[in-house]
Amino acid sequence: MFSFIYLNKKKELYKLLVARSDILAAHTTCDYFLANVKDMKHQLYFPLQSAIIVSYGRPFSDNKPLGPLKNKWGKFQDQQLQKMHNDLLELRNKMIAHSDHEHRKAHIIPKGASHPVLGKIKRLSASVSSKALPIERFQIIRRLCFDLNTRLNQEADKQLEELFENKDLPPKEFELSW
């Protein structure tokens, strides 16, 4: 019985450690985005938005072999953060990691047509729609990442100490296995 509980705790610690790495990546990318991207025309707007959404959503997706984080990690006291969390996961699942038709439509642009981003079209072209989050929302995403990473850090550090603090450990880095 003890080894089964110990094994489950190690699996949970693994998920927490990987999740905090992913959420920290999303947070750091938000910082870079906010410092460098001033409008939707910036060449890094969509790649950085995608990177943030993918990194943020990864812990909540069906990872192999251990699956997503427990549901409690996707619950937030602040309703603005809760909405942003839900929106990011929906964008990840329907537009960023997948290409659901309702979010990614292909369009044909005739020669001579006017396009809001491309301007006057010189030859027959095509585009694929995508959703750009307003720049102001990246401040909320940054707060969301900070909130979640703070909770993940506290729990991961607690479990790390419970599992390994008073153990005879090798003198060098080793892989967390289960």
- Principal-axes geometry comes out as elongated
Low-confidence stretches: none
Mean pLDDT: 93
Instruction: Tally the helices.
Output: 4
In whole angstroms, the N-to-C terminal distance is: 15 Å
* Helix/strand class: mainly alpha
Strand order of the largest sheet: 1-4
Helical amount = 40-55%
Number of strands: 4
Strand share of the residues? 5-15%
What's the domain count? 1
Computed CA radius of gyration, to the nearest angstrom: 21 Å
Short précis:
By secondary structure, the chain is mainly alpha-helical.
Describe this structure in words.
With 178 residues, the chain is mainly alpha-helical. The protein has one domain (2-164). It contains 4 helices and 4 strands. The protein has helices at residues 2-36, 45-57, 79-96, 137-164, and strands spanning 106-109, 114-115, 119-120, 125-128. The protein has a two-stranded antiparallel sheet. Strands 2-3 form a two-stranded antiparallel ribbon. The mean pLDDT is 93.
Any descriptors?
mainly alpha; single chain; 53% helix; elongated; two-stranded antiparallel sheet; 178 residues
